[in-house]
Amino acid sequence: MILSDLERVFAFFEVVGSRSWKVLSLKTLAEYYESQGDLDTAPKYYKQYYHGNKALLFDKRQSDIFLLEQDYATATLAKENELLNTEKDLNELLLQKEQLRNRIVIALIIMVSISAILLAIRLRSILSKNKALITQSTTCELMGLYNRRYLDLDHFKRVNDTFGHDVGDEVLVEVARSVK
């Protein structure tokens, strides 16, 4: 009865497809035949158990290797992703730095341009005032001639004293008109 139960269990595991339980049932059958003194059948089951167990261990090792490879690939991808993110962050920082540098250069150009325009306006104003001062210092306002020092009217003081300054100014204007 035990043998028929063991053979049914073995057949069940074969149908279900549970390799590890099937291999374990082969070992149990081998031990049963050995305990019954059937030394011809027991080694046959031990041999099947040995090959089945060896295949299970090989498959487990392959599965472990596959899992290790998957873990390594996942870790490698994570590192590559981290590296790409770091490179992206670095590129963003470099872009921000470049944009800031460009803004600073533009601000400096604008400031220099405004300063140059203000200096040009101020220079023009100064030159205009200098020209007016030169004209004023070299031209007689009354006569419109170059400085009175270039023209000496003898005894003109007597004209001013005798006829008054208004008449003297008219005389100076007439002399200037005739000299021009």
Automatic annotation (TrEMBL):
Alphabetically ordered keywords of this record: Membrane, Transmembrane, Transmembrane helix
Residues annotated as domain GGDEF: 144-180
The reaction(s) this protein catalyses: 2 GTP = 3',3'-c-di-GMP + 2 diphosphate
EC number(s) from the headed UniProt entry: 2.7.7.65
Transmembrane segments: 104-121
Catalytic EC class: transferase
InterPro entries assigned: Diguanylate_Cyclase, GGDEF_dom, Nucleotide_cyclase, Rev_trsase/Diguanyl_cyclase
GO biological process assignments: cell adhesion involved in single-species biofilm formation; negative regulation of bacterial-type flagellum-dependent cell motility
NCBIfam families reported in the protein's UniProt record: GGDEF (TIGR00254)
PANTHER family named in the record: DIGUANYLATE CYCLASE DGCM-RELATED, REGULATORY COMPONENTS OF SENSORY TRANSDUCTION SYSTEM
Name of the protein described by the UniProt record: diguanylate cyclase
Highest classification ranks of the organism: Bacteria, Pseudomonadati, Pseudomonadota, Gammaproteobacteria, Vibrionales
